[in-house]
Specification:
The structure holds 2 protein chains of 2 kinds. Chain A is mainly β. Helix content of chain A is 0%, strand content 52%. Chain A starts with a strand and ends with a strand. Chain B is mainly β. The chains are: A mainly beta, B mainly beta.
Chain lengths: 114, 117
Amino acid sequence: QQQVKQSPQSLIVQKGGISIINCAYENTAFDYFPWYQQFPGKGPALLIAIRPDVSEKKEGRFTISFNKSAKQFSLHIMDSQPGDSATYFCAASYGNTNAGKSTFGDGTTLTVKP
Amino acid sequence: DAGVTQSPTHLIKTRGQQVTLRCSPKSGHDTVSWYQQALGQGPQFIFQYYEEEERQRGNFPDRFSGHQYPNYSSELNVNALLLGDSALYLCASSLAPGGGSGANVLTFGAGSRLTVL
């Protein structure tokens, strides 16, 4: 049973455009929703994260939108750059004592064309 | 400030063999979690070690075992290797569970890529 579903599988965006990646979750106990960025040959790196008590969080060009009632959250990358080309993973975890046990989506490969 | 270091970076084994992967956590972190990332998929949680004990475990068979040392470094052992064990094995470190919001923030290493022939 996949508890976090991510779409699209791949995404091609022109430089300067907006990249949008979506995730849906099933377990309502989840209370921490991070996004990771992974470059080839590297491990995932935390990009931005949100908790369900807020509907939006912005850090620079990256924004998470969160819809608790729909059990969905999304990553928006504004002014996308070729250096943003990477694989992006959404994830979810719950409870402070369960911290570290994250459930990941299957990833979105983003290509930003110059 | 050294991040999470893993070794070896690549290794090739044959079916039935055993493998040990090693991880040193980020400075200041005392908890280590291991993940398996198959090609084209997201990481899957294997288990977590804190205070030298396995604290949480994902849906992996007993062939997967681990250890944490007093210096917080950790090992992942896989016995009786199967072709399906071929994957990137990721180590992530964090603060202790129950220790505040920092416990959710995972710092990943670059991984050990295991190929089973």
